[in-house]
Amino acid sequence: MNRYLLQRLLQLIPVLLGISCITFALMHLTPGDPAEIMLRADGIKPTQEAIVATRHTLGLDGPVHKQYFHWLNRVSHLDFGLSYSSGRPVFTELMSRFPATILLSACSVLSAILIALPIGVGSALYPGRMLDRLGRVCAMLSVSMPGYWLSLLLIYYGAVKFKLFPVMGMDGVSSVILPALTLGFGMAGVYIRLIRSSLLDVLGKRYITAARAKGLQEWRIIIRHALRNALLPSLTLLGVNIAGLLGGSVIVETIFSWPGIGKYAVEAIFAKDYIVIQGYVLWMAVVVVLINLTVDLLHLLLDPRIRLR
Description:
The chain is mainly α. The chain has helices spanning 2-29, 34-41, 48-58, 64-76, 90-125, 130-144, 147-161, 177-203, 206-213, 218-230, 232-246, 250-255, 261-270, 274-302, 304-308. The complex is composed of two ATP-binding proteins (NikD and NikE), two transmembrane proteins (NikB and NikC) and a solute-binding protein (NikA).
């Protein structure tokens, strides 16, 4: 276990280095001068002398490879640079918005599980019946309904018409319900179909037949034997979704004015704050690789066959 973990951590180093190199190169290929953008944000007329002085202050007048290694050295110390718009450290801005993103991600995953798990299990236990048909309809609506449209529907009925929840922003526990339902319902459809197909496959295995022949109770067979193995594919997909949620759900956070990382990235894009975009992309890469590593470790714990190999 420890050897596997060490190998995976060492494999992350070239991946993150490659992503940092690509991110830095793309930011230098984008149109616009960061020095000019920074001067305009401060309300200073971007004369040629001011631009040259600002570029020297930011270290943008040196060779590109020196700029990259200087930036990489600062990033290794969790210094992503200063935002052109606000002048505050990018890492501080990201960390100040991360708790809101974590709260929204956790509630979204919880709502997706509460929707998908009972419907998916019921569809597998009663295939072809009414519950299975309702599960198919629910999955189809989840996959086909755009997130922005569902967001507007929930805002209209849940906040404007019936006034049950706050319209926008982060104001108490009730404010997270609408955006979490939007994201959770959007994810639930895939999990309904995946849980149904995986559980149907597992229920046809010989060890399930043997467990029934021993006289074990049906609920014990489903929960302790069948469902544990059937959820492994869903666990892999859940890791990918969690990584995306922790990186910020851009559309939903923007519509609901949720003060998370995704909304912060959208504001940086409109402001052409390239240093923030650069830090955000690198942050996303770190989150994705760490979540994938966590999912692989969970697979080791849940599936003894992987440990034996």
